[in-house]
Amino acid sequence: MLHDPYDMQERRCTQEWQLPIGFATLRFPFASDCDSFMPAYRSSPGFFEIPHAAVYAVMTVTVLVSGICFIQAGGPSAPAELLYRYGGMYSTAIARHEYWRLVAYGFLHVNFVHLTMNMLCLVLWGGHLERRIGPAYFLIIYLCAMVFGAVIGNGIHSTPYLTVGASGATSGILGALLCLWILGKLDIRFDFFAINIGLNIAFAFSNSRIDWGVHLGGFAAGLIACAVLDLVEKANAYALRCKFPEAVKVNLTLLVCVTALWTWSGQAQTVAAGASGWGLTIIVVLACCAVVKLVDLALSMTKGLAIVVGALAGANAAAVMICGWALSFSCTPRWPTGSVPLDNFLVIFCPNPLLISGLGAIGAVALTLWLCAKDISRGIEDVGFVGTSLRAERSRRHGL
Question: CA-CA distances (angstroms) from residue 247 to 126, 131, 163, 190, 244?
Answer without folding.
Answer: 19, 14, 33, 32, 8
